[in-house]
Amino acid sequence: MTDASAPSTESPSAPAGPAIDTSAFDPATRPQDDLFRHVNGPWLRDAPIQPDRATAGAFVTLVDEAERVVRGIVESCRDALDDPAADLDADERKIGELYASFMDTDRIDALGTEPLQDDLHRIDGVADVPTFVEVLGHLERSGAASVVGLYIAPDRGNPERYVTHVVQSGLGLPDESYYRTDETAEVRAAYRDHLERMFTLGGFESPADRAARVLDLETQVAAHHWDRVACRDAQRTYNLLDRDGLQALLGPLDLTTWSTAADIPASVLEEAVVSQPSFLEGLAGLLTVEHLPAWRDWLRWQVLHAAAPYLPAAFVEENFAFYGRTLSGTDELRPRWKRGVGFVESAMGEAIGRIYVRTEYPPTAKERMDDLIAHLVEAYRRSISALPWMSEATQTEALAKLDAFTPKVGHPERFKDYTALETDPTDLLGNARRSLTVSMDRELAKIGRPIDRDEWYMTPQTVNAYYNPTMNEIVFPAAILQPPFFHPDADDAVNYGAIGAVIGHEIGHGFDDQGSHYDGTGALRNWWSDDDRAAFESLTAALVEQYGALSPDGADGQKVNGELTIGENIGDLGGLGIAYQAYRIATGGEAPTIDGLTGDQRFFISWAQAWQSKVRPAETVRRLTVDPHSPPEFRCNQVVRNIDAFHEAFGTTSADALWLDPEDRVTIWAS
């Protein structure tokens, strides 16, 4: 739990070395007009996007570096399998065998679709809705997508216990909007062609007819899906039902038949939080005899799609042609070794993480992060206490939530146990399915057990961070604690502008449009007065309007969805604003000028460095539809436009492009 006492304003452990290369700036672009391109302009112009990537930038560079380290771990385990002198532990041997199975392309090609035949024969036998439901349950452990998704998580209404969550599913395209808008008509046509080619590769007759049936069925399913904005609503998506209530929504999808075939204990479905109840009702109306021919083809498609990464090259390449090239604009399939590393990480991520942190996570990193987090929490405390729009009663609740935050840095204290996983270097698809079963059983076993507050939802080698509202925790894996986000030898301005803003962002999710519905215990509870909620929503509405007017390069005029991105935009704005306050606390308001840049200027430049990124046009369009994050250029520029300290640091005027009239600047948490 975060220490509630105010941290010292001294930072004796913080070095004062520069970490900003001013020679990389674009002198033709003024920071007052475009901070993002002033800092990153030459890189944006010259840096290539690797042919197997849809993006390039700071995040991708760190991902590549983590991937390089993990490759060394995985390949050393594989190479030691045949070495009698090698001293591999059980996890290392399994890592090696998983990778060996993925890299054995000769055996994969020789097997063809043989490993799928049992499942496909089962589907052939679907003659009525009950047998469809039974086969659907059987496929639950194969990796094939289902008509509904199921996961185990703390109960938002009572976060001291786990409960099953049921969510909408069943689509092969990224989002329900892809099935209905004119803008995505070409993508739908390409998807239909992809389905036809996959059925052809699978040896099915009349592949075009099957593809048309699947697309038509998914279009009907998509008509009942909630859109992504609605799915963000913490209150609307919390619908706790007992088994009878869930069964009533599902109609012909008999829970006993399905769960027995899926080997899911009855206790798992005694209660469930249903995220989109009307979707289940709509789905029930499609589970009819008349739809069975389409459902059979849909099942066949799910089996082929789920197994495609583990089948011969023709399947792999066709899968990439649509999901990589068409949807994201990526030029080339990732090299097999990269896909192999990803496969092993998906199966034994924390076993790899246990090895990763031995060399990649020095103890000094946690010490510095603890100091940064303490200052960020103190900055939030001071800001909340001084908010002009929030009443004292709501401030008291907000501060109690802040005091209850739990930070996690680096890696879990206790790594996951993979004893139950059986691996075989000659059985790739079997390895994939056994891994899924072990993971699934681990999740199902949570029902009825105490909450595991030591659990992590990212591996140490993941370049990211997250906030978990039901545990009220902020989590920073080891892999993100590197430049440009975290510089062990940089001055405070650089670290607070980058990793400090990341910390502030994750804390800010506890107070964004959805996180603010949870209290300090992680319970979904309204701790706001009506007036305070109205004031908050007025501020967020202004932010929605700001971002909704923006269109990034490569989007052909398509604009940001301000409602979809509002949570992340609040996180960015509050994160950077609070990070600046924390930076001032840490330095006592005094910082040297380095390379002609004041401390405040270095702070904002560091923020811009962290968002160095470029995205392929197709991927830009896809993200605008499905991604709750704004494009990188706006995560940089639109945020600083709202922060007074940026305008003061660079002396902006109304003649500058990044100028925003003071009365139009949105300040939510930083003051």
Question: Which features does this protein show?
Answer:
single chain; Neutral endopeptidase, domain 2; four-stranded mixed sheet; 671 residues; 7% strand; alpha/beta
Please compute the radius of gyration using only Cα atoms: 26 Å
Strand content: 5-15%
Ends distance? 25 Å
What is the CATH superfamily classification of the largest domain?
Collagenase (Catalytic Domain)
Summed up, the domain count is 2
Major beta-sheet overview: 4 strands, mixed
* Uncertain runs: 1-17
* Overall average pLDDT: 95
Strand order of the largest sheet: 2-3-5-4
Shape: globular
Query: Helix count, per DSSP?
Result: 26
Percent of residues in helical segments?
Answer: 40-55%
Total strands: the figure is 9
- CATH top level class name of the largest domain: Alpha Beta
- At CATH level 3, the topology of the largest domain is Collagenase (Catalytic Domain)
The CATH architecture assignment of the largest domain turns out to be: 3-Layer(aba) Sandwich
Which structural class fits the helix and strand makeup?
alpha/beta
Structural write-up:
The protein folds into two domains: about 20-45 and about 360-410 and about 455-665, Collagenase (Catalytic Domain) (3-Layer(aba) Sandwich); about 115-310, Orthogonal Bundle (Neutral endopeptidase, domain 2), CATH 1.10.1380.10. About 50% of the residues lie in helices and about 5% in strands. The protein has 26 helices and nine strands. A four-stranded mixed β-sheet has the order 2-3-5-4. Helix 1 packs across helix 23 and helix 16 packs antiparallel against helix 17 (about 390-405). The longest helix is centred in the middle third of the chain and has 25 residues, at about 335-360.
